[in-house]
């Protein structure tokens, strides 16, 4: 039966200060079901403070929040039942094994003993901790703890998932696995808000973004990001005319565009990029820079922060 409560996040004019520090000044945004939103902002911009408010762990000074239609201030318990929270640092029970920690989390969310055990086993497989399932949490590496933390956030199959810097400490393969997992959660109709100041991390994962700067959200609706099959590559040449001609000859002319003196070309994958570079150098084009362009999120982020003309 479908959940009658909408699985979204809505924040309106949220504010929270710590003494004289206005950590969040005015945050307003909405993230709908089935969506992964990146929460993007520089260090100290208020991301964690905002997430703590959404997670019922910090009361706002002003503004309103709805998580699945519920107010975390008025109904924290009901919100926690529908929300998974992965903090930026895992507070683990160091002596409990991975399996027992997850079983206990499940029990705390009201699962019966058998269901909690079953759910723990599912999650251990999901986050790829099978070989470590019977190890105490204290022996886990930082990245493995991150995965345990993610599993714990998912234990009660929440409709809304809040992830604070989930990829920090993860190796590249684990980052890919995280991205796949987050996308899968969203595909189930859930709402995911992921904070990071590493934009490349979010580029691959997020459908949309909430930009936070100095505690204020900006232009969220203007910056939706569509998942792309191809990636843009940036090319700088000492001879732009020769570059344009060689791109034309290689069949890239139609899609090439010039951005701040550099040419941006969409390529399908690294092999195609390598092939194109070989073609350009064989054609005698003097290339001085060649690599992936910054993604849409970074472009927008830099624009919003006035770091680009
Ligand atoms: N409990 C607190 N007491 C006092 N100041 C705080 C507290 N929590 C956060 N701050 C301040 O509020 C501001 C926002 O901090 P916050 O941790 O929310 O930022 P952030 O965007 O998550 O940063 P980062 O990317 O570095 O994790 C910072 O100036 C921080 O020093």
Structure description:
Residues 9-239 form the ABC transporter domain. It holds the Pfam family ABC_tran. InterPro entries: AAA+_ATPase (IPR003593), ABC_transporter-like_ATP-bd (IPR003439), P-loop_NTPase (IPR027417). One of its GO terms (molecular function) is ATP hydrolysis activity. It comes from Agromyces archimandritae. This protein is of the alpha/beta class. It has 10 helices and 13 strands. It has a 6-stranded mixed beta sheet, with helices on both faces. The protein has a 4-stranded antiparallel beta sheet with strand order 11-12-10-13. The protein has a 3-stranded antiparallel beta sheet with strand order 2-1-4, with helices on one face. α4 crosses α5. The chain is globular, with a radius of gyration of 22 Å. Adenosine-5'-triphosphate is lined by residues 18, 21, 23, 41, 43-49, 197.
Summarize the structure.
By secondary structure, this protein is α/β, with parallel strands linked by helices. It contains 10 helices and 13 strands.
């Amino acid at each position: 039966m479908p959940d009658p409560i909408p699985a979204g996040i809505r924040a309106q004019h949220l504010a929270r200060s710590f003494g004289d520090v206005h950590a969040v000044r005015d945050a307003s945004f909405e993230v709908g079901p089935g969506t992964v939103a990146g929460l993007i902002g520089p260090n100290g911009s208020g991301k964690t403070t905002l997430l703590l408010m959404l997670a019922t762990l910090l009361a706002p000074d002003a503004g309103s929040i709805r998580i699945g239609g519920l107010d975390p201030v008025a109904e924290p318990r009901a919100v926690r039942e529908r929300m998974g929270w992965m903090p930026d640092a895992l507070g683990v029970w160091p002596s409990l094994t991975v399996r027992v920690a997850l079983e206990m989390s499940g029990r705390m969310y009201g699962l019966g003993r058998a269901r909690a055990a079953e759910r723990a086993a599912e999650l251990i497989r999901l986050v790829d901790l099978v070989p470590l399932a019977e190890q105490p949490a204290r022996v886990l590496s930082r990245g493995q703890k991150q995965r345990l933390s993610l599993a714990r956030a998912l234990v009660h199959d929440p409709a809304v998932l809040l992830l604070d810097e989930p990829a920090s400490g993860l190796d590249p393969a684990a980052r890919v696995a995280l991205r796949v997992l987050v996308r899968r959660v969203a595909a189930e109709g859930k709402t995911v808000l992921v904070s990071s100041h590493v934009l490349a991390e979010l580029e691959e994962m997020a459908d949309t973004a909430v930009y936070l700067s100095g505690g204020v959200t900006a232009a969220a609706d203007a910056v939706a990001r569509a998942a792309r099959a191809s990636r843009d590559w940036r090319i700088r040449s000492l001879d732009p005319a020769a570059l344009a001609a060689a791109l034309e000859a290689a069949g890239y002319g139609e899609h090439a565009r010039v951005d701040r003196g550099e040419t941006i070309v969409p390529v399908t994958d690294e092999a195609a990029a390598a092939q194109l570079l070989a073609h350009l150098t064989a054609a005698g084009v003097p290339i001085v820079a060649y690599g992936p362009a910054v993604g849409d999120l970074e472009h927008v982020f830099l624009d919003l922060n006035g770091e680009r003309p």
